[in-house]
Design a protein that fits this description.
two-stranded parallel sheet; 364 residues; alpha/beta; binds S-adenosyl-L-homocysteine; binds iron/sulfur cluster; 12 helices; single chain
């Protein structure tokens, strides 16, 4: 069986070209996009301003099917909702909706979606549940967009963070294609500044992203003040130095005029000593960057611990005293395994035996 192409794997221009080949007016592409992104339509038949013959041809050659929901959990009185979506062939992917900005205390009226870009991840970060699953495959643009559209059917979304499963810049083309639909007026029409791509630090891809003409935010996952420790925490970091990452950040800031964030997962007595905060500050001080501290979310088998609140606060205090802007990631959604890769791990392990709050297994 040949599986049908998903229409959202195509760009707007590619849809226009396809329509032109069919002898249809190009403007139909914008009408179709309007149905998909503004009205959440998943069936060509519902596109009532298209001629019936065109609807039939679209349905014969393309699909707009959403990804079926395997499981959904919510916490914080519904302010955090995590969904596990079915990709078929035993693969599944997570997305989270947060009715707040996880990195800003004072952010009313924000609704952030955290999306995944890969099934699993090949980067091998020792502390990450996704990394521990290994790599299965890249997501297609339509599969990234399906995570967002799952939530936009319920409410308006303001921010998107590429911080779910996988390394977005290792699935570069699909990530950028998805972003273009998210920001273009005919697509979801989101503010570019409301979108953040988080990377483990692929320097060449960071430079490529800086040249895309997009204004999206960039987060670089640093996790250590020195290369030795960083390479122990991130299996694939051997070929890259922190200096190279800082230089790439500077180029991104220069080209895009956007602040860069350094993410730092805090691991008890591994990378959370005040002396390490001082060395980190010395390296990132003076560039338009800020450090986002993420207290470690324990994952099975990593043998790592989350630092105490006091240690987290002390690390932040030292960074600030050294002149570096530092925030601590808001801790919510703990009971629904909101950390990257954890819901998938949980559901695969427990299957039909829900333990936490508000957990439903939805039968496909
Ligand atoms: N692959 C990208 C984006 C996905 S991970 C990246 O690594 O940046 C999003 C963020 O969550 C990264 O900063 C990552 O280091 C962090 N993270 C992963 N597992 C974590 C855990 N168990 N506890 C705390 N932070 C974690
Ligand atoms: Fe991959 Fe990011 Fe997890 Fe590292 S932290 S294994 S890069 S998803």
């Amino acid at each position: 069986m040949v599986s049908m192409r998903h229409l959202l794997d195509l760009s707007l221009e590619e849809i226009e070209d396809t329509l032109a080949e069919w002898g249809e007016p190009r403007f139909r592409a914008k009408q179709i996009a309007g149905w998909v992104f503004q009205h959440g339509v998943t069936d060509f038949e519902a596109m009532t301003n298209l001629p019936a013959a065109l609807r039939a041809r679209l349905a014969a050659e393309f699909t707009l099917a959403p990804l079926p929901t395997i499981a959904e959990r919510s916490a914080d009185d519904g302010a955090t909702t995590k969904v596990l979506l079915d990709l078929g062939a035993g693969a599944a992917v997570e997305a989270v909706r947060m009715d707040y900005d996880p990195d800003e205390d004072e952010a009313p009226d924000r609704t952030t979606i955290c999306v995944s870009t890969q099934v699993g991840c090949a980067m091998g970060c020792s502390f990450c549940a996704t990394g521990q699953q290994g790599f299965t495959r890249n997501l297609r643009p339509s599969e990234i967009l399906a995570q967002v559209l799952h939530f936009t059917r319920e409410r308006r979304i303001t921010n998107i963070v590429f911080m779910g499963m996988g390394e977005p810049l290792a699935n570069y083309d699909a990530t950028v294609r998805a972003i273009r639909w998210l920001v273009r007026p005919e697509g979801l029409n989101l503010r570019q500044r409301g979108i953040t791509v988080s990377t483990v630090g692929l320097v060449r891809a960071i430079d490529r992203l800086a040249d895309e003409g997009l204004q999206v935010g960039l987060t670089i996952s640093l996790h250590a003040p020195d290369d030795d420790l960083r390479r122990r925490l991130i299996d694939t970091a051997r070929g890259t130095t922190i200096d190279e990452l800082i230089e790439a950040a500077k180029r991104y800031i220069e080209k895009r005029g956007r602040r860069v964030t350094f993410a730092y997962a805090l691991l008890d007595h591994v990378n959370d000593e005040p002396e390490q905060a001082r060395r980190l500050a010395q390296r990132v001080r003076g560039i338009q960057a800020h450090v986002n501290l993420i207290p470690y979310n324990p994952t099975a088998g990593a043998g790592l611990r989350r630092p105490s609140r006091e240690r987290v606060r002390e690390f932040q205090r030292v960074l600030q005293a050294e002149g570096v802007n530092a925030t601590v990631r808001i801790e919510r959604g703990q009971e629904i395994a909101a950390a990257c890769g954890q819901l998938r791990t949980d559901v695969m392990n427990e299957n039909a035996a829900p333990s936490g709050a508000a957990f439903t297994v939805i039968q496909p």
